[in-house]
Amino acid sequence: MSFPSDLEIARGATLRPLTEIAAESGIPADCLEQYGEGAAKIKLEAIGRMADRPKAKYVVVSAITPTPLGEGKTTTTVGLGQGFSHVGKKATIAIRQPSMGPTFGIKGGAAGGGYSQVVPMELFNLHLTGDMHAVTAAHNMCSAMLDAHLFHGNELGLDMHNITWRRVMDINERALRNIVVGLGGRLDGVPRETGFDITAASEVMAALALCTSLADLRARMGRIVVGYDKAGTPITAEDLGVAGSMTVILKEAIKPNLMQTLEGTPALVHCGPFGNIATGNSSIIADQIGIHTGDYLLTEAGFGADMGAERFFNIKCRYSGIAPDAAVLVATVRGLKAHSGNHKIVAGRPLPEALLAENPDEVHQGGDNLRKQLENMQVHGVSPVVAINVFPGDHDADIAAIGEIADEFNARSA
What we know:
Layout: H1 6-11, H2 18-25, E1 32-35, E2 39-42, H3 45-49, E3 57-63, H4 73-86, E4 91-95, H5 100-104, E5 112-113, E6 116-119, H6 121-125, H7 131-151, E7 158-163, E8 167-169, E9 179-181, E10 192-194, E11 196-198, H8 203-210, H9 214-223, E12 225-229, E13 234-236, H10 237-240, H11 243-249, E14 257-261, E15 266-269, H12 284-290, E16 296-300, H13 305-320, E17 326-331, H14 333-339, H15 353-356, H16 360-366, H17 368-379, E18 385-388, H18 396-408
Parallel strand pairs: 3-16, 3-17, 4-15, 4-16, 8-11, 17-18
Antiparallel strand pairs: 1-2, 2-14, 5-6, 6-14, 7-12, 9-10, 12-13, 14-15
C-alpha cells in the first residue's frame, strides 16, 4: 500500500479559520492581522493584554546531534501539539521559519512530515508574511550605508581590512560568498572585498529573535558591530546612523505569525536564526504570547541539544524570563548508529545497508551522543523525556537500546 507524500497530505488539509483558532487561544480579535487564508500577524499589544491569562506549561523540544537527514524535531513538536488535543489539553507550538536556501537545497522544507505538519506547507516554507525579506532588507540597508560612508570620506576611520559586516540573501548562491564591490569607477563606491551570507545567519535575525519589544529591537540594532577602526575600536550601526532605519524596516517582521497544524493546533512561526552561529530558536515574542494560549507551549530548539537547547537555556530563557517546565529529546536509531562512527549518512543517497541491519550494540556505541545530550539538559534542572522517532524498518531490539540509555539517566522514553 502506497503512503501519500507530505505534499499530498498537506494539500489535502482542511484549514480552520485563523480567527477561530485565535479566539480559542485567547488572542484578542483586534490583535490579528490576516495575511490571506493561511497566516496572520499578531500585534505586539497582545502580550500585555494576555498577561493576566493563566500560564501554560513550557516545554522545549530538541534532539541528539542530527544527521544530514534530520531526526524529526519539528515532526515531534507538531505531533505532540496535536496529541495533547486528543487527551483534552490545549497546546500551542512555536517553531522557526525556514530559510529558502535549505528548502531548495538537499535538506528540503521544515514544516514537519506525514500527518504532523504545519500548513499551508508552501506558504510556511516560502515567503510566509515576508519576514525573511524584511531581515534581508534591514541587513543590506546597513551594508549600503557602510559603503556610502566609505565613499563619502570614511569619517569614522573604518579599517578597510577589518570590516566584518557583509551582505545577505535567502538563497544558496555559492558564487557570491566572496566578491569585490565598488568596481566600475570613482562614482561606484570604494573597491573592497566582501561577500554574502544567508539571511538566517544575519545578526539582524538573531536580534529579532531575542528582542522583547520594538524599543529593545532598536537598541539591539544600534549595538551591531560592523567593523573596527585602526585602533581596534568597534564601529556600530548606531555610529553609522542606520540603526533607526533598520528597525523601521522590521516593524512588521517583529510581529509573530499565526498558522496551524493539520489538525488545527495553533502554530506560532517566527524568526529563523541558525543554531550553529546564533540561537537556533524561534522568537521570544512568540513565546511571550504562546505562554498564555492554553495548557502547554511547545517550543523547538533547533539543531542538536548541544546547540539549540544550550542556547535556549542560557540565552533565550535569560532574556525572556520564562523557565521551562519540561523537555523532550528526540532520538533515532539511524542517528545513534551514525554516531557510532561506523556509517556515513549522505543526504540524497540511500542509507547504508549495514546501518539498516539489527545491531543494538551499535546503538549503545553511538548512544554516547544521547548520553551527553541528556547530561547537558539535566544540568539545567530539567530531566527530558526521550522521544524515539521510529522509522519503517527499525528493529525492536535497536529501539529498546535507546530506552536502555534513557534508563541510565532515569529519563523516561517513549
